[in-house]
Hints:
Blueprint: H1 2-10, H2 14-19, H3 24-31, E1 36-39, H4 53-69, E2 77-79, E3 82-87, H5 91-105, E4 113-116, H6 118-122, E5 129-132, E6 139-143, E7 146-150
Parallel strand pairs: 3-5
Antiparallel strand pairs: 1-4, 2-3, 5-6, 6-7
Amino acid sequence: MLAKLLELITGRDDLERVAYRDDIGQLNAYLATRKLLIPKRPRRFLDAASFTPEELLELMREEAEELSSDPFEPWVLEVDGQRRLPAFSSQKKMVIFSGEISKRMDKVFSLGCGEVLLRDLVDSIDIDFIDLNPLSQKSWEIGIGVIRGRT
Length: 151
């Protein structure tokens, strides 16, 4: 309850409040206990202009059903030769990301997610960076021993 009230007042969720302090030790300690939303790799990307709105809606519904039953495979993005894992502190941040990526790609896709601790995931996938709340007003890039806030 207090966390929700603070979010309403500050506009930042619990993880963002910790990250804004720019204390890597404190952030790492918090990330050891705080699960994040990690997008599942979409099964396909559709050109919205190729379908009627009804067809597109039906395809997206079918895709979402199939995606929900698939095993969890994180969506690792290749950006400038680096493998980046988007991670989100809230569903709202993930929806913003999904909308922006969809516009940039000029494609639509169903996006599912898993809620995991980073330590349970990072060792099992090949990545260079974790992008915390990418495409949000403030985001953080977590690399090997490095954290940088981005605006």
